[in-house]
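User: What would this chain look like folded?
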Amino acid sequence: MEKIIITIGRQFGSGGKEVGKKVAKELGVPFYDKELLAVAAKESGLNAQFLEDYDEKPTNSLLYSIVMGQSHMLMNGNGHISVEQMASRAQREAVFCVAAKGSCVIVGRCADYILRGKENLLRVFISAEDEERIERISKRDQLTRERAADKMRRMDKARKSYYSFNSDGDWGEAANYDLCINISKYGVDNAVQCILSMIGK
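Assistant: Here's the prediction, encoded as structure tokens.
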């Protein structure tokens, strides 16, 4: 198979991770979501728990922390660097690392932006109707519908802020992706088939 990198951005609770896993399985290629943190830890030498603490968390962004007076600054050879920047840089390098190794599916972490301009890259965004997302979150995380709805809003806001801080694009903006799929309209399996058809599979 010709090398292909598929990145999947997703609304929280939309089923994007499930879609990504199924696409990776169909293609027989590595799948990276939280798995990317282990790669980042190995490549950077940073603690895996440290990277998880700053994983797609906008309230730990440098800009937010400066405004709130909470940024933790460290020194490196080039001067000051925040721990937020250190974690973001490690994840960025991990995205480049796994993409260089061969075909794979990467969920989140601004991978679509980081790898923009690369050949054989398919950038996908997965969305779903709010009610369906709330139902999925409620069942998966064992939350009341009210708490699930609150978590959905918080996580979407978090991902949007994280994406804005780490890129020049807008999270979920159709122009930033090659394919946008509403799971509520087409379902997970049809979404998987749609993605596969886009790469000739």
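Residues 5-198 form a domain with the Rossmann fold fold (CATH 3.40.50.300). If you want, I can go into more detail on any region.
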